[in-house]
Amino acid sequence: MAANGNITVQGYINHHLNDMTVGEGFWAINLGALGWSIILGSLFVISFALVGRKATTGVPGKFQCFVEMIVEFVSGSVRETFHSKDRLIAPVALTIFMWIFLMNLMKLVPVDWFPTIAGFFGLLFNSSALPEYAQNYSYLEQIMSHPWSYLKVAPTTDINIAMGLALGVFVLILGYSIRYKGVGGFAKELSLTPFNHWSLIPFNLVLELVQLISKPVSLGLRLFGNLYAGEVIFILIALVGLGQLPLHFAWAVFHIMVILLQAFIFMMLTIVYLSMAAEDH
Amino acid sequence: MDINATLIGQSIAMVVFVWFTMKFVWPPLNNAIEERQKRIADGLAASERAEKDLEKAHEQVAAELNKAKADAAEIIEQARKRATKLVDDETQRGQEEREKIIASGHAEIEAERNRAREELRKQVAILAIAGAEKIIQREVDAAKQSDIVDKLVAEL
């Protein structure tokens, strides 16, 4: 949908980059991103759990084959990198891979579809929420002005979602460090590497802490940056009007790679970080 | 687009999903895969074993066949020998029989001839005596000259 009438280009872009929120300040929650994130996560766990429950050891069906392919792929990646025996890491890797993949996949849905549908239902069921200034707008503009239409359907383009995942990984890194090395071993690694001398403990500490914290930060920012940039391009393409169709198609095809790659990279780095946390070095 | 509580919400969601995956998604799928891998491995091993068994059976069959052939050849050889021996024996027996029959025929013929000769001799003697009797009837007593006749008979 091109920006026309009362909605400016700037307003249109802002519209698509902002999410529906409840709450104020830090305690605000981005309903669109978090909601879709949970919907997609549930879609993943429920469909996979259903397949798992009906899983046959005989000849598998097509969907079971597909699911098993992913499971095998993740399990192979884990086995290659993470050498200790661990019950948690493979499910973590699978969850991260599938969840991020599905969240990224939502980017292929044209940017106006879900906001328009949500705005339509917003106008239908909660027309009083329409801002005062929009009373004289055209119907479509009213839809797009409705608060419900501020809906982000690709959760990973929200930095909170990406960093939330990275935070989870960070907690796992700490947990693995302590579990495999003990609190003492972990403290020793933080303070006595790379220079094993008591006088250099503060220096080591700064170095190691930076290294430790840079892991989740880079993990989250990489995912967010890639996806956000792609999303901005999608929005800009959507501004072109009817000419967007071939452009959108081309960018979407190119983006399939990013979608898959970023999910894979996030999973792989999680495994690598966790195996680094579990091994002495 | 600020950092806000969504981050915490997402982290909590992640914990829940990871827990769910660990509890209900990963184990059954992984078990199914591992079970199937084991079954496939077993199946492959079984088929390999069956192949080996088949090969062994083939060898056994070939050996049996060879042995049977050898047996058959031996039996045929024996039979031939026995047939030959039988024919030989029969031939010999026939020969003997023939010789015996010929010999008995000869003996019979000989006996017949002797008898005939004896008969003839007697006839001749009788004839001679009758002739002599006729000749000498008038002057010689037959009883008196019988020793001469007997001597004559013996000379015949």
Automatic annotation (TrEMBL), chain A:
InterPro entries linked to this entry: ATP_syn_F0_a_bact/chloroplast, ATP_synth_F0_asu, ATP_synth_F0_asu_AS, F0_ATP_A_sf
Keyword Transport: yes
Positions of transmembrane segments: 27-52, 88-106, 159-178, 223-243, 249-274
Protein name (database record): ATP synthase subunit a
Gene Ontology MF: a single term: hydrolase activity
Mode of membrane association: Multi-pass membrane protein
This protein's UniProt keywords: ATP synthesis, Cell membrane, CF(0), Hydrogen ion transport, Hydrolase, Ion transport, Membrane, Transmembrane, Transmembrane helix, Transport
Main location: membrane
Cited Pfam families: ATP-synt_A (PF00119)
Taxonomic source organism: Aliidiomarina sedimenti
Organism phylogeny: Bacteria, Pseudomonadati, Pseudomonadota, Gammaproteobacteria, Alteromonadales
Chain's role: Key component of the proton channel; it plays a direct role in the translocation of protons across the membrane.
UniProt keyword annotation of Hydrolase present: yes
Coiled coil: none
Cellular localization per UniProt: Cell membrane; Membrane
Family according to the record: Belongs to the ATPase A chain family.
TrEMBL record, chain B:
Subcellular location: Cell membrane; Endomembrane system
Coiled coil: 44-82
GO MF entries: hydrolase activity
Pfam families for this protein: ATP-synt_B
UniProt KW 4Fe-4S keyword: no
Topology of this chain in the membrane: Single-pass membrane protein
Gene3D superfamilies per UniProt: F1F0 ATP synthase subunit B, membrane domain (1.20.5.620)
InterPro entries according to UniProt: ATP_synth_B-like_membr_sf, ATP_synth_b/b'su_bac/chlpt, ATP_synth_F0_bsu_bac, ATP_synthase_B_chain
Taxonomy, superkingdom: Bacteria
Keyword Plastid recorded: no
TM region(s), chain numbering: 6-26
Keyword set, alphabetical order: ATP synthesis, Cell membrane, CF(0), Coiled coil, Hydrogen ion transport, Hydrolase, Ion transport, Membrane, Transmembrane, Transmembrane helix, Transport
Record-stated family: Belongs to the ATPase B chain family.
Alphabetized NCBIfam families for the sequence: ATP_synt_b, PRK05759.1-2, PRK05759.1-4
HAMAP family: ATP_synth_b_bprime
Quaternary data: F-type ATPases have 2 components, F(1) - the catalytic core - and F(0) - the membrane proton channel. F(1) has five subunits: alpha(3), beta(3), gamma(1), delta(1), epsilon(1). F(0) has four main subunits: a(1), b(2) and c(10-14). The alpha and beta chains form an alternating ring which encloses part of the gamma chain. F(1) is attached to F(0) by a central stalk formed by the gamma and epsilon chains, while a peripheral stalk is formed by the delta and b chains.
Function: F(1)F(0) ATP synthase produces ATP from ADP in the presence of a proton or sodium gradient. F-type ATPases consist of two structural domains, F(1) containing the extramembraneous catalytic core and F(0) containing the membrane proton channel, linked together by a central stalk and a peripheral stalk. During catalysis, ATP synthesis in the catalytic domain of F(1) is coupled via a rotary mechanism of the central stalk subunits to proton translocation. Component of the F(0) channel, it forms part of the peripheral stalk, linking F(1) to F(0). The b'-subunit is a diverged and duplicated form of b found in plants and photosynthetic bacteria.
Protein name from the UniProt record: ATP synthase subunit b
Gene, per the UniProt record: atpF
